[in-house]
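The authors assume throughout that readers already know how a fold can be written as discrete tokens. What matters is that the chain and its backbone geometry are given together, residue for residue. A single example would do more here than another paragraph of explanation. For illustration, here is how one protein appears when written out as sequence plus structure tokens.
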Amino acid sequence: MSKPKTERRLPDDAAQAKASSLRTSARKLNLVAASIRGKNAGAALTQLTFEKRRIAQDVKKVLQSAIANAENNHSLDVDKLYVAEAWVGRSFVMKRFHARGRGKSAGIEKPFSNLTIIVRERQEGELEAKKAARRAKGFSKKETSKGAAKAVAGA
């Protein structure tokens, strides 16, 4: 008797990839992850290729893995994929010491992080519907919420 198979947590149009114990702090990793959230998979790969931060290459590997999972395991169209979610969590912290003068020492913490990326297939007309909803709220392409607030306050 074996235990029953667990249900798939993601919908049918999504795939994920995880990386654990990436050698950087969660705060620094989240800056890179935030820069690709919501973007098309191809655009996100291009951005990560030219990113200056060292950890961007590891994020790129995880994104490529998520895209490969979507294509091979779930038969999704690669051209329609976008980064639906990218979140970061803290992992363990290596503690080291740094010898100081007069017989003293100081602590050094070397943090590690976890990264999860979920790519999803964009449905027909989903992007246009999202843009139409933003226009209905009163935002144009170049206006941001702060710009709209200033315009309302000035009027």
Q: What stands out?
A: The chain has a mean pLDDT of 91. Residues 91 and 142 are 39 Å apart (CA to CA). The two ends are 71 Å apart (CA to CA).
